[in-house]
Amino acid sequence: MSIPAGIHHADLLSAGLGLEGLRSMTPPAIANPAAPTAEELRRRALWTNWRGIADLSPGGGFTEIYGSLAAVAGREFQALRRIPGASQPHRVMAQVPDGFDARARCLVVAVSSGSRGVYGAIALAGAWGLPRGCAVAYTDKGAGSDWIELGSSERHAIDGRLGAAAQPAFDPAGSGTQPRVAFKHAHSQDNPEADWGQHLHQAAQFGLDALNEALPGQAPFTFDNTRIIATGLSNGGAAVLRAAGMQGDWLDGAVAIAANTFSAEDGRPAFDYATEAAILMPCALLHPRFDAVALARPGGNKSPTAIARCARLHAQGLLAGASVEAQAEDAYARMRASGWSDGALEAGTISTGFDLWRAIAAAYASAYMRTTADAMPCGYAFAALNDKGQPTRASLEMRASWWADSSGIPPGTGVSLIDSMADGESGDPALPALQCLRALWTGDDAKAQSLHAGVEATRAAVPRDGLPLIVIHGADDGLIPDAFSSAAYVQRARAHGRDPRYWRIANAQHFDAFLGLPMLASRYVPLMPYAYRALDAMWAHLQDDTPLPASAEVDATPRKADASGIAPLRPDNVPMP
């Protein structure tokens, strides 16, 4: 398939920002915010995605004990591809370094984490593969940051600019009679998660096409003569595991980190445990077990909202106990009984404090049920707000910034979550809509059946027999607990005779980027050094037939903190399998 001509860049990894520019709290400047240039948007997108995934803080380990931000020159190709039957395309990108290693012929295929845009895996795959001389292909897996306000005729072009795009990256349905913001993961009406493995496969083919275009003297590049290594973090890791179960031997090796995967009866899909956590966790975190946990009480030790949550659940017969303390004890016991470890609950304070459970559950319900942005389940919507807190049309400057500045799922970059079921008189306004979401999982009406069908379509198969595979997960992941996801996947794979290597990392949670906060840096270790180590091991296995490291329970230890600050991350903090 022909592809658009690539653009040569002096720095594929950071657009010239380097480590200092990426560490800056101020994003790269845009001369005219109402009409950013393609290069300005690219630089901003790289800044946003690096900071959203990696811990770049001094002492955090990046460039100090792993990784590099040295400029890598090369050509960058971007296009849209479409899964057969899908109504919306997904973005694909390929980066071919000038120093491509013709002897190794390596293509790393990376999938964005969360719902991030096409640069969402740059800190993982780009920074590992490009300095090694590998080409890297990426996909936003049908999600991404191509947000559109319904009622607007503007659409995002392939370079991120907003206007009258001939081939838009996202063209949402919906009436547009009210101010509503649509984003592809939730509102494509395709349930893109069901096709994440196919998105990865199409990105791999695009990477081969880009290599043929960039290096015609070394062509053809095919699945048979080019090593294909797939990698991804979180939702990107789930896409890798979906691809690992696809037919054919096109994939040579795979590394999945903190994968949001649903595969086995003894695992749990994210919608199930996210809606459970959204309802029970605010009350459970009032348990004395969490008295000293950073971020456990975002409203303070006497959080009125958390106390109201306990009381309302008790009044509905859903929690036992005549006091707040007893109700918190019951909420905690229920979460432990449903599979949550203390470590996952402790790290889950991050998602509770930032209200991630509600935003994720609302968006994913819409994705699974294939709704438009103005017909989301349970009365939710996304929109910009005016100074009175009412939905309003977003400014041109705001709309032009979304592609580069957003993380893929609102709230953020000026867009808020609207809850039309909110009960403002209760002291806990979010509960009615959250219980509506929960009923989509626990109920059996037509809406619940629609959601269950959407979730079932995302189930991962066991990996292809003989596929070299390394799975990594933090033992204290509070967003995607390993017991519900990676551990269940690995157990099922082994029951079917497969041999994935599983590294379970002590004192690691889900968000490396949050380790720039001292209170978290002294409690958790990053996952990214293990991702780089796994990619190194996979490379050595495929290139030199070196045996893969064994599965391991890795005893990682956080950095020490004292009155003078936090010690830098050292290799002995993150021992390698």
Distinctive features:
three-stranded antiparallel β-sheet, alpha/beta, 17 helices, ten-stranded mixed β-sheet, 577 residues
Q: Write down the overall mean pLDDT.
A: 96
Helix content: 25-40%
Q: Rg to the nearest angstrom?
A: 23 Å
Sketch the major β-sheet.
Answer: 10 strands, mixed
Distance between the first and last residues' Cα:
41 Å
Could you tell me the strand content as a percent range? 5-15%
User: What is the tally of helical segments?
Assistant: 17
What's the number of extended β-strand segments?
19
Strands of the biggest beta sheet: in what spatial order? 1-2-3-5-4-10-11-15-16-17
| Class based on secondary structure composition and strand pairing | alpha/beta
Q: What would the principal axes of the Cα set say about the shape?
A: globular
Poorly predicted regions: none
